[in-house]
Amino acid sequence: MIPRYTRPEMARIWEPENRFRIWFEIEAHACDAQAELGVIPKHAAEAVWERGKWEVERIDEIERETRHDVIAFLTNLAEHVGHEARFVHQGMTSSDVLDTCLAVQLKQAGDLLIQDLDGLLAALKRRAYEHKHTVTIGRSHGIHAEPTTFGLKLAGHYAAFARARARLVAARDEVATCAISGAVGTFANIDPHVEAHVAAKLGLTVEPHSTQVIPRDRHAQFFAVLGVIASSLENLAVEIRHLQRTEVREAEEYFHPGQKGSSAMPHKRNPVLSENLTGLARIVRGYVVPAMENVALWHERDISHSSVERMIGPDATVTLDFALARATGMIEKLVVYPERMQKNLDDLGGLVFSQRVLLALTQAGMSRENAYLAVQRNAMQVWRHGGSFLDLLAADHDVVQHISRDELAPMFNMAYHTKHVDTIFRRVFGEG
Amino acid sequence: MIPRYTRPEMARIWEPENRFRIWFEIEAHACDAQAELGVIPKHAAEAVWERGKWEVERIDEIERETRHDVIAFLTNLAEHVGHEARFVHQGMTSSDVLDTCLAVQLKQAGDLLIQDLDGLLAALKRRAYEHKHTVTIGRSHGIHAEPTTFGLKLAGHYAAFARARARLVAARDEVATCAISGAVGTFANIDPHVEAHVAAKLGLTVEPHSTQVIPRDRHAQFFAVLGVIASSLENLAVEIRHLQRTEVREAEEYFHPGQKGSSAMPHKRNPVLSENLTGLARIVRGYVVPAMENVALWHERDISHSSVERMIGPDATVTLDFALARATGMIEKLVVYPERMQKNLDDLGGLVFSQRVLLALTQAGMSRENAYLAVQRNAMQVWRHGGSFLDLLAADHDVVQHISRDELAPMFNMAYHTKHVDTIFRRVFGEG
Amino acid sequence: MIPRYTRPEMARIWEPENRFRIWFEIEAHACDAQAELGVIPKHAAEAVWERGKWEVERIDEIERETRHDVIAFLTNLAEHVGHEARFVHQGMTSSDVLDTCLAVQLKQAGDLLIQDLDGLLAALKRRAYEHKHTVTIGRSHGIHAEPTTFGLKLAGHYAAFARARARLVAARDEVATCAISGAVGTFANIDPHVEAHVAAKLGLTVEPHSTQVIPRDRHAQFFAVLGVIASSLENLAVEIRHLQRTEVREAEEYFHPGQKGSSAMPHKRNPVLSENLTGLARIVRGYVVPAMENVALWHERDISHSSVERMIGPDATVTLDFALARATGMIEKLVVYPERMQKNLDDLGGLVFSQRVLLALTQAGMSRENAYLAVQRNAMQVWRHGGSFLDLLAADHDVVQHISRDELAPMFNMAYHTKHVDTIFRRVFGEG
Amino acid sequence: MIPRYTRPEMARIWEPENRFRIWFEIEAHACDAQAELGVIPKHAAEAVWERGKWEVERIDEIERETRHDVIAFLTNLAEHVGHEARFVHQGMTSSDVLDTCLAVQLKQAGDLLIQDLDGLLAALKRRAYEHKHTVTIGRSHGIHAEPTTFGLKLAGHYAAFARARARLVAARDEVATCAISGAVGTFANIDPHVEAHVAAKLGLTVEPHSTQVIPRDRHAQFFAVLGVIASSLENLAVEIRHLQRTEVREAEEYFHPGQKGSSAMPHKRNPVLSENLTGLARIVRGYVVPAMENVALWHERDISHSSVERMIGPDATVTLDFALARATGMIEKLVVYPERMQKNLDDLGGLVFSQRVLLALTQAGMSRENAYLAVQRNAMQVWRHGGSFLDLLAADHDVVQHISRDELAPMFNMAYHTKHVDTIFRRVFGEG
């Protein structure tokens, strides 16, 4: 979490102000529930809401003495609430506060990331429709394969981020549980009603089984999902980087006036956004295994997970938030060059239609093996020396025995490859 | 995937026989659909079903020449089907076969792992109910905290694996898609009807957008979920390892007659199953990041994912299958020592009731700070020098000013800590 | 890199002030070399040293416009240097500055970490000698095995960190190279002499082959070594956590007066330092794979590595620095309880001598198999029901046929197990 | 470790035959040393060497009963050696055998990998010299930067693998230690002389401090180094993949006669070897973190590391061995297209000389800022609309005020960029 890759809204979730605000709400709602149960006086709960205040600096000061953050907070809170403060935190442990707070923070972070995904989905959809029929070469192994459209490319990324969104919704809901169950989760000193009350007030579900802590497989799943989303972002970024490379140049990241590509080479226009996204994906993936290592705590809990979460909680969510926003901007402003796409398509002299010819030859009665050899023979000729694939085929004795030039010519036709674009768009976007 | 950690049922999924069987079904069902569409003759489709055969060794032989596995399979198939074989694989690419096959295999593996989880869940539930009221000390940071029950411990692991099951069902469904869309996913040479037909026959859903390959975020999510499950297994294993250590000895893995703990020290009884599970968890987690790195393929696809999947597909599922079965056996036969649990509970002279005393003192009007100091003062005395916590408290001037010995004594009571066991069992198992 | 786990000296390496200071030195030394070569005027080089200044805020301001940090720095520098500034950065690229700067920073960080290791080694050595002869039980699989000494335990960790130090020295030297080779590393616009001059001035070696960037396998190796060191720290931390658990209590982290172990349970004394180290180790390990993914840049370079390094450069070094310092303090102040060690040793009624008896029986002519069975039979009796292993053996018909009670008794002797402590200390510390 | 990615020589190291052979040698050499010390009779040691035999199937059979591999081996060995067998393994633990054996295996594997690296280095060097002066465009960010030579590209990879070799030699030596120190490493039941003797016979160094096991940071470092080497392989593979892509086509993997690129598209020639290497690198990297997690064993040892090593020991070394051999073959047979390199170089109309013009303008008195703007202005024109960069510059009023066309023309010259090739080759290869 460094300023360069941080947006304020996500950063705020992890700032002390937000954390202490959530801590306060947990404690104050718990007091309400305890008062309802008659465990503490009603006026004590009211006093907490009325006089409850805290100061980040003062908490830090007390923590330096007590070496315990929740006790420091409660001490500072007591300085404002006064005598009734002794009813605060009754029967609770620090983890009741800390883990429920983390659940709220991850829920807030999850909500923001879902918003980010919605932004990216909207951008991808708009550009996909814009280029629904912009023909371009599809490549497997980096080698020209058959035509597709640029809109189809973007639709594929849209589908990936729609899956990402569904996974994130599930992971957010899984991590958003409230535990107020006491020292080892037995509710010995606190009634389960308190937990239910606080959960409802904070928009969380009740953790069915906690052991002082909320079980960490929930968090591991959350960070794993962020890692998968980051990987889908990398996939999008790698596509853009390829399209922008000098020999391809079918699309380019928007270049701001005043921007300098290179201090040394004034002609450079580099895909720095998508390269950056590639790196950010590595970072977010790097947090997945530590989050999984956090699951195996000793007995009812140990605190080894805490330092990991203090770092990856902010780092993973802030970095992914930044990356999603950056990807959205990149897609929104992406400069697309349909004429370069056409030029690259034409560059292989019609080779991209080789499969269609192959199929036609087998349909016309040639064995698959012989058809393959005939097509490959002529294809390799074009690949190595250029020229027109159609012309070569039409001059090949074995080929024309089965299909005439007049039958071959109409096979070299883009529309053949784009005839199902509507079908796929309908599948991806739920509309044509 | 080494024999020592392999069970035959899961291994079979990854053997050539199963793979070629699936390939054949994909091709044969595709022929049916093509025949329906009139693209190939009906009798050709029938011939494939009737005469379709293959031999693993022959395929290997052909592959050594062609260096292409699907072509080798088709060539061998053609040797049996004869002339009609030229209608097989029409308009399809190898990936249509390979990726759909992988989807079937991962679905089969997922089904088996779900069965494994059901077995583990059943074992955990049975033992949890058996020890629902077996009191034992709960520990945080490895330090005695407050009493809980052994049944509650197991219930927590049950809840974790119930979550694991839900995640795995989702991940399995996500990865079980069928793609038969041609060279770059445009259906240029094959009608989407074929895909729909094959999907339905194989129990898969249709991949809405493929690009020769099924997008790899689906697979990354699948392997990530396996990594989280492995981490939950490690959590269970670490618990058993702790319980079995000499100073604790509250539970032990079953020791077979004839088993030797150590070649050098005949007295040793080691928790080797749970230690082994700890290692297997590391292995399964190690496959998560490679699976995520597989997502960012170049353009419509490259084949870098393939070698990764050839290894982690079998390795991750076989290892997790073995680990789940081992964990199930370990839990089923776990030897539990309630009397040791009681002895360990008693060992701290009543310190485990410190929180209850603290709360009572604040209820009786002492400030939280002073109550904490009074309780801690006496607790540290017991911790260092042994003795009865109750006796010390009853001799503490500050304490007895607020609570008499007669009021203190009933606070040292296990039932206080187990009163909500039913509540938690109801939450976890949906029944009391 | 969060304040809680950050020490100022390491943090300073990564602050803008240090970075810009290094940038300036690279540029100014390069000017000297260029002036020597006659490429730029001598007075220009002098002017840079004399008038060279910069302001972090001003650089930030310019960067917001140019979106390029090195250009922003050079522009700000030029504002101070004036007309001669046009001779600065001649023939260089940003990466010449950035990569050489990173090399200096990692060297500085490496130096600091080596100092940290020296501190930890000194603490381990002092405590190892202090407890050279403090007998304690050695445990394999968490099960009592045979006696060892607490000094030997610490000596093992000393040896691990001595290895860590050697690896870090090698990794630091490997990463400390200087590249000033121009746009794609061909020295087209800058003479290799400049690189050699700057390298010598900054205490770096010359990078033999750069491609605008210094190859990233050097950095990957550096971060991998940090990951291995962090794992050795975890090993030490896990040992302390085990020793402090309630049932063992052979050692304890120092507990500050005023420190609170638990807000709810005043009796708790938790091994929070070593638990924290366990978590920090996970974090540092999490940076290893991203650093390795950084190696495969596109062609002569892409900038995907940059965001990764901006985060893990500081995070990995700051976190490991903090962890090493924390471990050192933990070891220095560790409270050791030799009497508990003795008590735990005695707890198994002499079982820890089982191997010696086994060997004596085979020496006395019993087959290994029968000796094993005899020893195991009596050992299991003690394990389950307590009692004296010696008494049981002496009452075993098969045993006493080969060895009498009078021969057995002296085998139950600690000195037998500590006779080679000097040998091992000499190997580890190079002295007795 | 699957047949497809396995070479027999490396696989053999991990087969039972080799393992049992090493076990036998450890035991037999240990007997010699014990006999020298007078601990066992000389004839017993001789009997072991003379009659020592074992059968893999018989060992498996016994292990199914005892569930302990070393005991099973010793039992089988005793069946052949007879009565003297009771002197075998005296004072040793299974780990003395297992860990020393693993050290031998990793040393053997390391030796083989070093051989592989030597093969790759030789291939890279040969091709580097072959194309020392083959001019090609250097690319940063995928964008044409400045000319370099194809030999220089390969020289960079040579330098990376030379570093890899040095790291591997160090890691192999670090992991090649012998421990025969008994149950917890105290030599209670065995004299250190035995360890020294066996170490010398097996070409290992003595482990200064073992605790039944050899410390796992040694192994972690070994596997980390394999991960870094795999990443360097990926770097090489990514370069080849880029060069082979249709729009670049500057180099191609050798295509066997009879090889089929695609079952559907007969024109395809895919860089499948380098794509495969990319995937294999992910796999090898995936083993690094598990190896690091193995370091933190409980107390003197637990056995969690064992299952990890049983899998990653073979998998990592076999996969990397295969990958290095594949890379060597790929480089040896790589088809290089210098004329395509020249064509691509020319494609940008001279833009690649932009930095030289920039420098010349500043040398001629233009401010750096103005020079940058002038060069960028004309460069962007060429980038977008093609044409000759030289012509545009020569028509730019601001430019020609400082440099005439006659002065500009000679700046468009390849030799300027290759003048230091000898220097770099000398640095990398130690010769010109």
From TrEMBL, chains A, B, C, D:
<dbReference type="InterPro" id="IPR004769">
    <property type="entry name" value="Pur_lyase"/>
</dbReference>
<dbReference type="InterPro" id="IPR024083">
    <property type="entry name" value="Fumarase/histidase_N"/>
</dbReference>
<comment type="similarity">
    <text>Belongs to the lyase 1 family. Adenylosuccinate lyase subfamily.</text>
</comment>
<dbReference type="InterPro" id="IPR019468">
    <property type="entry name" value="AdenyloSucc_lyase_C"/>
</dbReference>
<dbReference type="InterPro" id="IPR000362">
    <property type="entry name" value="Fumarate_lyase_fam"/>
</dbReference>
<feature type="domain" description="Adenylosuccinate lyase C-terminal">
    <location>
        <begin position="349"/>
        <end position="429"/>
    </location>
</feature>
<comment type="pathway">
    <text>Purine metabolism; IMP biosynthesis via de novo pathway; 5-amino-1-(5-phospho-D-ribosyl)imidazole-4-carboxamide from 5-amino-1-(5-phospho-D-ribosyl)imidazole-4-carboxylate: step 2/2.</text>
</comment>
<dbReference type="Pfam" id="PF10397">
    <property type="entry name" value="ADSL_C"/>
</dbReference>
<keyword id="KW-0658">Purine biosynthesis</keyword>
<dbReference type="InterPro" id="IPR008948">
    <property type="entry name" value="L-Aspartase-like"/>
</dbReference>
<comment type="pathway">
    <text>Purine metabolism; AMP biosynthesis via de novo pathway; AMP from IMP: step 2/2.</text>
</comment>
<dbReference type="InterPro" id="IPR022761">
    <property type="entry name" value="Fumarate_lyase_N"/>
</dbReference>
<dbReference type="GO" id="GO:0016829">
    <property type="term" value="F:lyase activity"/>
</dbReference>
<dbReference type="Pfam" id="PF00206">
    <property type="entry name" value="Lyase_1"/>
</dbReference>
<dbReference type="InterPro" id="IPR020557">
    <property type="entry name" value="Fumarate_lyase_CS"/>
</dbReference>
<protein>
    <recommendedName>
        <fullName>Adenylosuccinate lyase</fullName>
        <ecNumber>4.3.2.2</ecNumber>
    </recommendedName>
</protein>
<keyword id="KW-0456">Lyase</keyword>
